[in-house]
Inverse folding.
């Protein structure tokens, strides 16, 4: 049986960094704030409130709420459309669909702009389901909890699933959810030496995923002849 594939979004399938930074910068300017973190060093991927606290510093919760609302107003109206698909990703997704692979999306990005981006790119048919922390009430605490929720709700054996992401946090979340992990080199993160190296290109990722079930079969999925 082919493994179920679960993808991260930002830094793995799309480069949303310029659009996100523009929306953050506009929100800060509206409140006459300077970023506490240089824009080139800003982490892309954590939940919105976490990034706003990194940018704004120790400010009142009400101000974080206002900044969040302003970010959403800009990014969710037009900003999300500036996200760029990494080279080779459309071909990767099309090949996996042709292979009949079940693919899911699990991202720290809020659910609303995630769905807007998926619709904007015409990717609705590539993913069985889309998961985000704020899909649930209360919101899930972290990506590991989100992955466990996805596995449980879709009755997926974690030993027959792979999470694909671009950061060490993604690897740690996969480990916490008992999933295999494949890192990608073209995203925002860096993986320490001594760990399995990330794949270099989407073409390499496709080849790796096609080999995975043959080279590392689960007990319930014997190697194919």
């Amino acid at each position: 049986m082919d493994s179920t594939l679960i993808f991260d979004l930002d830094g793995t399938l799309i480069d949303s960094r310029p659009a996100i930074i523009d929306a953050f910068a506009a929100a800060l300017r509206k409140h006459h704030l300077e970023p506490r973190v240089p824009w080139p060093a800003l982490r892309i991927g954590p939940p919105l409130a976490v990034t706003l606290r990194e940018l704004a510093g120790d400010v009142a919760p009400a101000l974080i709420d206002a900044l969040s609302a302003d970010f959403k107003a800009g990014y969710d109206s037009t900003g999300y459309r500036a996200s760029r698909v990494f080279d080779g990703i459309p071909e990767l997704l099309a090949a996996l669909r042709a292979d009949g692979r079940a693919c899911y999306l699990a991202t720290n990005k809020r659910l609303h702009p995630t769905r807007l981006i998926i619709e904007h790119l015409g990717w609705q048919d590539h993913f069985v389901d889309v998961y985000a922390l704020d899909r649930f009430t209360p919101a899930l605490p972290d990506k590991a909890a989100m992955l466990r929720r996805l596995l449980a709700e879709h009755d997926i054996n974690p030993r027959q699933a792979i999470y694909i992401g671009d950061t060490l946090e993604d690897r740690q979340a996969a480990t916490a959810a008992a999933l295999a992990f494949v890192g990608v080199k073209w995203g925002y993160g860096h993986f320490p030496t001594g760990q399995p190296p990330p794949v270099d290109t989407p073409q390499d990722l496709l080849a790796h995923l096609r080999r995975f079930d043959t080279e590392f079969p689960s007990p319930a999925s014997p190697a194919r002849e």
Notes: Residues 4-15+85-215 form a domain with the Rossmann fold fold (CATH 3.40.50.1000). The chain has a mean pLDDT of 93. The chain is about 40% helix and 10% strand. The helical segments are 17-30, 48-56, 61-77, 89-98, 111-121, 143-153, 168-176, 202-215.
